[in-house]
Write a structure and sequence with these properties.
Blueprint (H helix, E strand, L loop, with lengths): L2 H7 L25 H8 L14 H14 L3 E5 L2 H12 L5 E5 L4 H10 L6 E5 L4 H7 L4 E7 L11 H10 L3 E5 L4 H4 L9 E5 L13 E5 L1 H14 L5 H11 L2 H19 L5 E5 L9 H7 L6 E6 L2 H11 L4 E2 L9 E3 L11 H6 L6 E5 L5 H21 L1
Parallel strand pairs: 2-3, 2-4, 4-5, 5-6, 10-11
Antiparallel strand pairs: 1-7, 6-7, 8-9, 9-12, 11-12
The structure holds pyridoxal-5'-phosphate.
The site of pyridoxal-5'-phosphate has 13 residues, from helix 4.
Amino acid sequence: MKKQTKAIRIQAERSQNREHSVPLYLTSSFTFEDAEQGRAIFAEEQAGNIYSRYMNPNVDEFVDKMCMLENTEDGIAFATGMAANFAAMGGLLQSGDHVVASKALFGSCIQILTKILPKWGITCTFVDGIDLAQWEAAIQENTKFLFCESPSNPGLELIDIEAICQLKAKHNLILAIDNCFATPIIQTPADWGADLVIHSATKYIDGQGRVLGGVICGREDLIKEIRFFARHTGPSMSPFNAWVLSKSLETLHLRMEKHSDNAAKLAAALEKNPALNAVKYPFLASHPQYELAKKQMKMGGAILTIDVKGGFEAVNEMSKHLTIASVSPNLGDTRTIITHPASTTHSKLSVDQKAEVGITDGLVRIAVGLEAVEDLIADFEQALEKAMVGSLVG
Ligand SMILES: *Cc1c(COP(=O)(O)O)cnc(C)c1O
């Protein structure tokens, strides 16, 4: 069966009520027939639910679908994407271990690696993710873990996933990839050999801007260690969120195709716009890693960036005149969202750090939604025209 079919048909076991849509299992604990069954389930001699911090039918259904989509042996769900990222590192690393990570990481991942893990003696070296020689040079005797994101946020830089998988195999390291922007519809890093694939399910997996969630899919032995960490520290996904997210996976294929189609058309239209210094999108021939994008991504994804002439002032003017796109620090919604990274999500970075990851004053991230693309193109064109006039007058 195709993955689309499985994403719709994998379901928690039907109850005696013969429901068609899976019910919500809002229960903190589960019952045992008798004390002997409780003992046997705790001793793992018998399969069975115990307590919703450990497992829950809605959460398990969501994880089963994610592992199927990511082609991994096992998986575990979390309350948020950051809980997933932290549990991957907290669960697998110990004092004295070293991490090599790409500079172009989600902001909170950088905070974990630079401010939180060092408290327990875990250190990190950051490298320019697209330069494989830097990754290799940064590997030390105590290096255990490689961590990156592709495409990166907001620079849309790509990591050569096949090459980095070869590097981690050569040095016998654990490679974790944050696959949030691409989703398993566009790329499945485990097929190249990635050990862990991490998601903020808050983004395209929900896809409708409703709930937070996270998930790690990967090698069974690693997930087992992370599961131990998670069961006892408690960053579990709620059954309600799992129910919402599992339903969302039924339409992930359709949504990612439409998001990518809309984004490609908007990027192509904006590339000609005189109000912009640059447009970046993985499937535009002008993207510096276009060949790699075509090799490892099935579609271009939903995110593009534009660099507006006139910096923040012009961006602000444009944002006032947009009638459809929302101004919000999120992505992965049916609604098109614009974000100005330099003043919001990446405002804590120094001037040099911003320059290193390509965050200029005029850079705007557009997370293209599912509205009719003709409407989006017309909306950005009129807003940019007014922004040009406005900032010229100003
Ligand atoms: C949003 C995001 C996260 C964090 O996810 P939350 O669900 O907000 O905790 C991590 N990585 C990437 C790439 C993201 O976009």
